[in-house]
Structures are given as structure tokens and as C-alpha cells.
């Protein structure tokens, strides 16, 4: 595991007025804990608020937070009080924080709900929902749901892409730090050296690939073996690796690389979130997945393709199109249609080569749009800011 010093905590902590309990269950993958951990750090570092994070699977959590000891039931990491949440915890003596967040509808233990209802000052109770760009989100964001039995109200807080949603998480000063990093060739070289990877050459494509299993990845990697420019593909160890190995013709593990034709694949170890950001910032194009890496690719200001978390009945394709219709506003028609075709091919698992060839022709426009996009999203503040404002409105 690698860890670089965290260097984008730009704001001074403010007087701690709110305290937070965040409850998170790890369903599969790293997205739920990835978002919960990021929210905890945003509230603690940029707002100076005390945060307790209750997590049921510390082993998965430790993959993205290497300083964490999975065997310890209570520990302070990065100024966050992390508690192991056992299914049968009695929560005897539990005193709720001023705000209690259940991440992604994870059900709170009955004892916690009882303690919230019985507290002298009842906490504000938030269900932080999954990210979607669909229109209905605006109507549901902020909705209140009274508890069927206890004197408690739960509020639904929806991340999103418009001013009438909860926005997207972004630390204070992140965009400026990223811009400085992208100008700093020495820092980038040192970063790649940590993985024994040569610095990026001007006449090279450097592409990160974080995805679920995907036959379209095989098509694209195969195509890149015949690319006129060398392609260096950075693959964090994980689900897509089997597709990568099939193209390279050999098993690969973290720290190894393999070349076929113009394509060189480097398999990266899982790093902490800050180092993964640096990977995104240092590549020309990023393939990302799920929820959190998808958001971070947007802050990277570089072109990206999203592998959305697959759902039954292709519900995810509706979400993909909802996002694309937001994202493609302000792009010329040719780039928009190439981006839509490539996103569909990637998520359907086929037709990627033809789609990619179209998209390659639009690279300058795609780049330009990626640079401008974060400003639009952050005009009304990020999710952390909107959440704190929302809570303060409930307290008035
Ligand atoms: C590759 C890499 C990722 N990460 C982090 C970034 C993110 O916080 C996290 C990955 O989360 P995501 O990008 O969201 O992809 P994911 O596929 O892991 O998570 C998904 O999990 C499902 C259960 C959810 O329903 C999905 O919505 C989605 O969140 O891992 C690192 O910290 N280091 C790394 O090296």
C-alpha cells in the first residue's frame, strides 16, 4: 500500500457546532465506504466538526485507508473516530451526535433509534442516498419521513448535479491543488517512480482503467496494441484484471507490467484515496466506475468514461443517460454523440472500437469540456457545504 502526504486540506477548521455519527455498511466493492469516509474527512478537516464513523467491515475499509487497523474496534484515523459496528452490538450507553447519518439506507440498530428518540436534544437524522442525475431526485431531495413509532423524522439527502439537489462532495481547495499538480512535472515523475513506472512522455497516452469485469475492455485493449502512439494503461488491481490478462496473455498482479505491441499495462496496488486522486490527475483519460471514483474523475478535469454499477432491468442505463444528458450540455453535437456512443458501448460490453475511433477525433473538445465542467458543478457549493446548511436550517 502506498500513501502520500495529504495536501489539500486548505480551509481553517471552524468552531465545531455540529457533531456527526455516520453509519455505513459495506455491501460490496468500495463505493459505500469510499463515500462515507470522504464525507467524514470533509466534515472533520474542512469544517472542524467531530465525526464518528461506524463501519461493519473494517477489512474492506482498510483497502482504501491503509492506516486503519482492521482488528481494532475503536481508533482515531485522520482525526476521525472510527468504530467497528458489530451486528449484535447492544449500543448500551450510546449518546447520539447532533447529526446521525445512515449512509445509503443502511438500517440503524433499534437501540440507536431508541437512543436518538430519548436524547435531550434529538439529533437531525439523515439518510444519505446514492448519486443519480435523474430528474426525480430534485423532487425527493430533502423530503422528510416521520418514524412510524418514535418521535423522530428522517430526511432524505440526495447527491446530484443540479442546484436543487445535494451536490457532489469536494474538499475546499481541491481544484486549485489539482491544477498545480497537473503543472508540476517533477511531482508527477516522483509519483510514478513510487510504482516503478517511467514518467509520462509527451507522445504517449496514459490511461487509468478502474472498471468492473467488461468484455469491452478486451476490445479496447486489443485495439490499443496497434495504436500509432504508445499507450500506458494503469490498472488498479481488481475486477477488470481478468480482461486485461486475457489480452496480455499472462497473469498479472500489483506491481507488475506487461507489453503487447503499443500497449503497456501496469498493475497498480490499491492506494489510499488521495493517491488514487493523483493517478486520476496524472492520466490523460480515466476509466472509472461506481460512484466515488466517478465523482473524483470529474474533479480531475480530464476526460473520463464511466462504468456504472450494473442493476437489474438495466435501470443503470437510465441513470447513465441522465448523467450524459447533463454532462453533454454545452458540448458540440459531434463530441456529445461520440461520448454517448462510447459510454453505451462500454456499459453494454461491446462495440467499443468503433465508438472509440469516433471519440478519438473529438479529443480536444472532450478535453476542453472536462476542464470547465467542475466549475459548473461547484457554483452552488459542494455536498459537504449543502449538507451543513441543510442541517443548520433544520436547527433554526
Ligand atoms: C482504485 C482505488 C480506488 N479507491 C477508492 C476510490 C473510491 O472511494 C472507492 C471505489 O468506489 P467507487 O468508485 O464508488 O466504485 P465501487 O464499484 O467500488 O463502488 C460501488 O459500490 C457499490 C456497492 C455501489 O452500489 C456503487 O454505487 C459503487 O459505489 O475506492 C482508492 O482509495 N484507492 C484505489 O487505488
TrEMBL record:
Tree of life domain: Bacteria
UniProt KW keywords: Glycosyltransferase, Transferase
One MF term in the entry's GO annotations: protein-arginine rhamnosyltransferase activity
InterPro entries: EarP (IPR016633)
Claim: Transferase is one of the keywords in the record: yes
The UniProt record lists the keyword Glycosyltransferase: yes
Catalytic activity: dTDP-beta-L-rhamnose + L-arginyl-[protein] = N(omega)-(alpha-L-rhamnosyl)-L-arginyl-[protein] + dTDP + H(+)
Family (UniProt): Belongs to the glycosyltransferase 104 family.
Function summary: Protein-arginine rhamnosyltransferase that catalyzes the transfer of a single rhamnose to elongation factor P (EF-P) on 'Lys-32', a modification required for EF-P-dependent rescue of polyproline stalled ribosomes.
Protein name: Protein-arginine rhamnosyltransferase
Organism from which the protein derives: Aquitalea magnusonii
Amino acid at each position: 500500500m502506498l500513501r502520500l502526504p495529504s495536501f489539500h486540506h486548505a480551509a481553517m477548521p471552524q468552531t465545531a457546532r455540529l457533531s456527526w455519527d455516520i453509519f455505513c455498511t459495506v455491501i460490496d466493492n468500495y463505493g459505500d465506504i469510499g463515500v462515507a469516509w470522504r464525507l467524514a474527512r470533509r466534515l472533520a478537516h474542512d469544517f472542524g466538526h467531530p465525526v464518528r464513523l461506524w463501519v461493519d467491515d473494517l477489512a474492506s475499509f482498510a483497502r482504501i485507508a491503509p492506516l486503519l487497523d482492521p482488528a481494532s474496534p475503536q481508533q482515531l484515523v485522520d482525526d476521525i473516530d472510527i468504530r467497528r459496528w458489530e451486528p449484535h452490538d447492544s449500543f448500551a450507553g450510546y449518546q447520539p451526535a447532533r447529526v446521525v447519518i445512515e449512509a445509503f439506507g443502511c438500517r440503524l440498530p433499534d437501540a440507536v433509534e431508541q437512543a436518538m428518540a430519548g436524547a435531550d436534544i434529538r439529533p437531525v437524522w439523515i439518510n444519505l442516498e446514492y448519486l443519480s442525475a435523474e430528474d426525480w431526485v430534485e423532487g425527493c431531495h430533502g423530503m422528510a419521513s416521520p418514524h412510524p413509532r418514535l418521535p423522530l423524522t428522517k430526511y432524505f439527502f440526495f447527491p446530484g448535479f443540479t442546484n436543487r439537489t445535494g451536490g457532489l462532495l469536494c474538499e475546499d481547495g481541491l481544484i486549485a491543488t489539482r491544477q498545480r499538480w497537473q503543472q508540476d512535472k517533477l511531482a508527477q515523475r516522483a509519483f510514478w517512480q513510487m510504482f516503478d513506472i517511467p514518467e509520462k512522455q509527451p507522445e504517449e497516452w496514459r490511461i487509468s482503467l478502474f472498471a468492473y469485469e467488461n468484455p469491452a475492455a478486451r476490445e479496447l485493449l486489443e485495439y490499443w496494441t496497434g495504436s500509432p502512439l504508445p499507450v500506458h494503461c494503469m490498472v488498479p488491481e481488481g475486477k477488470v484484471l481478468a480482461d486485461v490478462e486475457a489480452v496480455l496473455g499472462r497473469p498479472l498482479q500489483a506491481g507488475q507490467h506487461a507489453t503487447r505491441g503499443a500497449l503497456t499495462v501496469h498493475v497498480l496496488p490499491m492506494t489510499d484515496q488521495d493517491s488514487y486522486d493523483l493517478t486520476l490527475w496524472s492520466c490523460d483519460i480515466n476509466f472509472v466506475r461506481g460512484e466515488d471514483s466517478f465523482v473524483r474523475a470529474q474533479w480531475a478535469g480530464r476526460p473520463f468514461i464511466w462504468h456504472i454499477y450494473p442493476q437489474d432491468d438495466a435501470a443503470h442505463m437510465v441513470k447513465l443517460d441522465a448523467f450524459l444528458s447533463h454532462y453533454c450540455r454545452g458540448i458540440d453535437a459531434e463530441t456529445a454523440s461520440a461520448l454517448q456512443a462510447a459510454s453505451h458501448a462500454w456499459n453494454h460490453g461491446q462495440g467499443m472500437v468503433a465508438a472509440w475511433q469516433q471519440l478519438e477525433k473529438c479529443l480536444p473538445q472532450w478535453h476542453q469540456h472536462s476542464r470547465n465542467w467542475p466549475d459548473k458543478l461547484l457554483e452552488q457549493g459542494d455536498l459537504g457545504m449543502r449538507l451543513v446548511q441543510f442541517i443548520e436550517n433544520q436547527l433554526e
